[in-house]
Design goal:
CATH superfamily of the largest domain in chain A: DD-peptidase/beta-lactamase superfamily
Strand content of chain A: 15-25%
Radius of gyration of chain B: 20 Å
CATH topology of the largest domain in chain A: Beta-lactamase
Number of domains of chain A: 2
Order of helices and strands of chain B: HHHHHEEEHHHHHHHHHH
Structural class of chain B: mainly alpha
Number of strands of chain B: 3
Structural class of chain A: alpha+beta
Number of helices of chain B: 15
Shape of chain A: elongated
Strand order of the largest sheet of chain B: 1-2-3
Largest sheet of chain B: 3 strands, antiparallel
CATH architecture of the largest domain in chain A: 3-Layer(aba) Sandwich
Number of domains of chain B: 1
CATH class of the largest domain in chain A: Alpha Beta
Largest sheet of chain A: 7 strands, mixed
Oligomer: heterodimer
Number of helices of chain A: 22
Strand content of chain B: under 5%
Chain lengths: 600, 366
């Protein structure tokens, strides 16, 4: 039988076995009882895939219902939640997509710690998709989905009105209007996309699915359908918008190639209905293609924008601040006539120089005895120096403020500039110098420290055209539901009547009409099918060639369109900006006549 | 027959039937998805059929006398060596190791059977030299005896089976009176030799050990099995997710879930309670095995029963330990539970031998 040692050894072996089972059981208790919830979460993280379904962004249409921006399905590359990406994978991905390595790395880090996929890049090109598919084996944890992507149908057209969208940034998620949105949401970044983001965006949907280890969907667990955004109907008349853009591009090209203005790259123009304030066209040059920003802008495109010294992203209609030049004579004239410092019949002698200060006309010409009408039509400086002197800087500035200068017009675009009405106080503050008569002279002809935006100038002109009523400009006619019913009409600032005698306004109108008649600075506008009213302006530019202004409303009687146009470094207003306005008005008035007379 | 009914170790029989039954239930769950896809529960059927065949074979084993095994020990040793050589030349590779031999419709894993064979051979070998096992040198022939098959399985490479050989040998040496200080010396020697042995490991084996020390090192490669297995077991919590409801195993996040990682299926679907019950059954198995060893009629019976029990214990420790992340991943199946006809048959036959030893012993008491 068994000896003592062996029996003893077997008993010890049983003890060891008991110890083994205790250790195993203890470890089980640790895993299942103590850490059970933690591992339960891990198991859910394994099997649950939660994905955000982007809501189709609302469309943006012009006044006639022409779609300018819509949402079409595009391929979006995202990182699956909970997947850990190695540095090698991140490098490869960054290389394939031509993206910044740091950016991809950041997203990969976010992906590890969430249950929601992280968008890397949207609006993938066919070439990128092919490249990705070739490397899909080396890059597990990626998913390619179809998501609605913003699409700007006419590329650069109306870019500064529409703006663009992009992925919400980390800073934006922490504070401000985009706080609390899911990371990776597409939000408006500029233009109307930004201002009307809350109605355009819609509500993000969500789907939660159970998947197996290969990522195959086993069943849908829960979900919430996305809610489409609302559509915007703009006041923009896209035909006019394109007309204005083409006319401007053609003119800028011509100015540069003719050698008149070799640096004429930047310009701005805005057209509005003076009776309502509805903006019909808004152009800023140079432009950009907002589609570049959808799904993340490429380095090449960013460089193209960023290195352009004429700032393509800046909307010069609302952010370009220029001296008003002779277009300011509308204000000076209003002040002098309205304060009865002059009668329209009074003749003033222009010897080429004002008798109190050595300041004269731009070309050095002398017009002799002239009245208001002639002085306005021919843009005589000496006459208006005198008007400025008689009215005084306080009056000039009070009338400028009435016309809306010195503060934003309130158009629905972010970051509109206020411009500046300069007076003795401002000069003291900025230059620590006393105000002189020469300063008043300069202010009277729009060459001083006062700065205006094209939008403000257009608003001024429109107020004159509308017999002294300011209709602040606006861009959105109405917000409509996807089914076409009206969701809401945005609130607009109320129209405001100028505290200027109707007779004064009538005299200014008469002056503007004279500009476009033989003898005026815009005499060739008399060739248009209907008479129009306008004003040229040349703003002195210490940094280069002068900026050229042309403003006009049409038709001269019962006008329904007011245009302001400025060409930076375009030199003399009539030749720089005039042709742009002329071309637009020619087409505009022709089609208006066609409609009224039933031709065609 | 009446003798058998009266004198058999019924506790052991019930435990083994329970374990194999639980095994079938778990295999059914683990292969559920595959069965749905293919339309047949082929894994369950195969394991079930082999279980039936194995039960018949156990009955056959009981009819013989285990002493006759002593006589065939040397030929069996030769056969084992040939079998393992055969694997090296004719086996086909899977998962980086050459372990299977195709025989008609059945693929089997000779290394599984070799465990049983080596228990028999070593028991006979030690039994013959029983009187002379006084000094550490006296164990050298036995060590050499084991070394040949050990090296052969290591070459496959099958580190798991090689370790099982070591465990079997060690448990038998232990019962023969292998001294504690020798164990201490061996441990010391092993620790010193570890860096050298490291060089002989295959890259995937090295990775398994590296990953055992830190699974997060390669969460989608070598560490994947352990991470997923721990998630499966941990998420089972107290009562489990229910049969066929384990998301880890049903959605295939848990690899090898019907073979080496079947314990994780039990842990996930039947929770802490289920897992502890299974461990409890294994504890009874070990307890019965050691009791049979203690009461065996002769030294050969004791050695045989010790080797078999040692093998069971080692398998449970290494397999369960692996699924709960306290042992490195080695291809060691869980006795009676894991799918695999070679493993099942080996374990059943060895259980038969245990019952046989028990039966002979009790007869003597009358």
């Amino acid at each position: 039988m068994l000896n003592h040692t062996s029996a003893n050894r077997l008993k010890k072996m049983l003890t060891v076995a008991l110890a083994v089972f205790l250790v195993l059981g203890g470890r089980l208790a640790w895993l299942q009882l103590y850490k059970g919830l933690y591992y339960g979460k891990q198991a859910d993280g394994n099997r649950m895939r939660s994905a955000v379904i982007m809501a189709p962004r609302g469309r943006i249409m012009d006044i006639r219902g022409k779609v300018l921006a819509d949402s079409s399905p595009g391929y979006v590359l995202s990182l699956q939640a909970g997947h850990a990406f190695s540095d090698r994978e991140v490098d490869l991905l960054a290389r394939l997509l031509g993206m910044n390595r740091e950016e991809v790395h950041k997203k990969a880090e976010r992906a590890v710690n969430t249950y929601e996929q992280v968008v890397v890049k949207g609006e993938l090109t066919q070439q990128e998709i092919t490249l990705l598919e070739e490397h899909l084996k080396e890059l597990p944890g990626l998913s390619l989905d179809l998501q609605p992507m913003r699409h700007y149908l006419y590329k650069e057209s109306a870019a500064h009105v529409l703006g663009y969208v992009g992925e919400v940034s980390e800073e934006q998620l922490k504070q401000g209007r985009y706080k609390g949105l899911p990371p990776g949401s597409i939000v408006g970044k500029e233009g109307l996309e930004l201002i009307y983001d809350d109605v355009l965006r819609g509500e993000t949907g969500r789907r939660t699915e159970e998947v197996d280890v290969r990522g195959k969907v086993i069943r849908k667990l829960a979900g919430q359908a996305p809610v489409s955004g609302k559509d915007l109907v703009l006041t923009i008349d896209f035909a006019l918008q394109q007309l204005l853009e083409q006319a401007m591009d053609k003119q800028l090209q011509a100015l540069r190639s003719s050698g008149i203005a070799p640096n004429a790259y930047a310009a701005a123009a805005v057209a509005m209905d003076p009776n309502t304030g509805a903006v019909r066209a808004l152009v800023s040059r140079p432009g950009y293609d907002p589609n570049w920003f959808v799904g993340g802008i490429s380095t090449a495109h960013w460089k193209l924008i960023n290195e352009n010294v004429f700032h393509p992203l800046t909307n010069k209609v609302i952010n370009g601040e220029y001296p008003a030049g002779s277009t300011f004579k509308v204000v000076t004239g209003s002040a002098a006539l309205d304060q009865h410092k002059v009668t329209p019949e009074e003749l003033i002698f222009d010897s080429g120089r004002h008798w109190l200060a050595d300041m004269g006309n731009a070309g050095g010409e002398a017009l002799g005895w002239i009245n208001f009408q002639t002085a306005f039509a021919m843009s005589d400086n000496v006459y208006f120096y005198e008007m400025g002197r008689r009215a005084g800087i306080e009056n000039l500035n009070a009338y400028a403020a009435q016309y809306g200068f010195g503060k934003p017009t309130g158009i629905e675009l972010a970051g509109e500039s206020a411009g500046l009405i300069a007076g003795p106080a401002a000069k003291k503050k900025v230059f620590d110098e006393e105000w002189t008569l020469g300063d008043t002279f300069n202010a009277a002809i729009g060459q001083g420290l006062t700065l205006v935006t094209p939008m403000q100038i257009c608003q001024m002109l429109a107020a004159v055209a509308a017999d002294g009523v300011v209709h602040p400009p606006y861009l959105v006619e109405k917000v409509v539901n996807p089914d076409g019913t009206v969701y809401k009409v945005p609130e607009r600032p109320a129209a405001r009547k100028l505290r200027i005698e109707p007779e004064t306004i009538r005299l200014i109108q008469k002056g503007l009409k004279g500009v476009t008649q033989p003898g005026g600075t815009g005499a060739w506008f008399s060739g248009l099918p209907l008479p129009v009213a306008g004003k040229t302006g040349t703003a002195e530019n210490p940094h280069g060639q002068d900026h050229g202004w042309f403003i006009a409303y049409a038709p001269a009687e019962r006008p329904d369109l007011a245009i302001a146009c400025v060409v930076e470094q375009g030199s003399y207003g009539a030749t720089a900006a005039g042709p742009i306005v002329y071309e637009v008005l020619e087409t505009y008035l022709n089609s208006k006549l066609d409609k009224e007379t039933g031709r065609k | 027959m009446r003798h058998f009914i009266r004198n058999s170790d019924w506790i052991l029989i019930v435990v083994i039937l329970l374990l194999t039954g639980i095994g079938l239930v778990l295999i059914a769950s683990a292969t559920h998805g595959e069965a749905l896809a293919s339309g047949s529960n082929r894994f369950v059927w195969r394991q079930g059929i082999f279980l039936a065949v194995d039960l018949l074979m156990v009955a056959g084993v009981l009819a013989l006398d285990y002493h006759s095994l002593k006589r065939i020990a040397w030929p069996l040793y030769g056969f084992t060596v040939l079998l393992l050589l055969g694997v090296m030349f004719f086996g086909h590779a899977s998962l980086g190791a050459q372990r299977w031999i195709q025989l008609g419709p059945v693929t089997f894993q000779p290394s599984e059977f070799s465990k049983a064979f080596m228990i028999i051979c070593l028991a006979a070998f030690l039994d013959e030299r029983n009187e002379y096992l006084e000094q550490w040198k006296d164990y050298l022939p036995a060590c050499l005896f084991m070394l040949v098959p050990f090296v052969l399985v290591l070459r496959q490479p099958d580190l798991g089976t090689a370790l099982v050989f070591a465990a079997i040998a060690f448990s038998m040496f232990w019962v023969c009176g292998f001294k504690m200080k020798w164990i201490a010396a061996l441990t010391g020697a092993f620790v010193c030799a570890a860096p050298v042995l490291w060089q002989f490991l295959h890259e995937y084996q090295k990775n398994r050990i590296r990953v055992f020390l830190d699974p997060e090192l390669d969460p989608f490669g070598a560490g994947y099995h352990v991470i997923q297995s721990k998630i499966a077991i941990g998420s089972g919590m107290l009562w489990g997710k229910g049969w066929m409801q384990g998301t880890q195993s049903q959605l295939n996040f848990l690899p090898e879930n019907h073979t080496d990682f079947i314990f994780a299926v039990a842990g996930e679907e039947f929770g802490f309670m289920g897992a502890v019950i299974i461990l409890f059954l294994y504890m009874i198995l070990i307890w019965r095995g050691l009791t049979i060893a203690l009461n065996a009629e002769d030294r050969f019976g004791t050695l045989l029963a010790t080797g078999i029990t040692g093998m069971y214990l080692f398998h449970v420790l290494v397999n369960v330990g692996m699924t709960i992340g306290i042992m490195p991943v080695t291809g060691v199946p869980l006795p009676f539970l894991s799918y695999g006809v070679s493993s099942l048959t080996t374990n059943m036959l060895m259980a038969g031998v245990l019952l046989n030893i028990n039966l002979r012993h009790t007869r003597l008491q009358f």
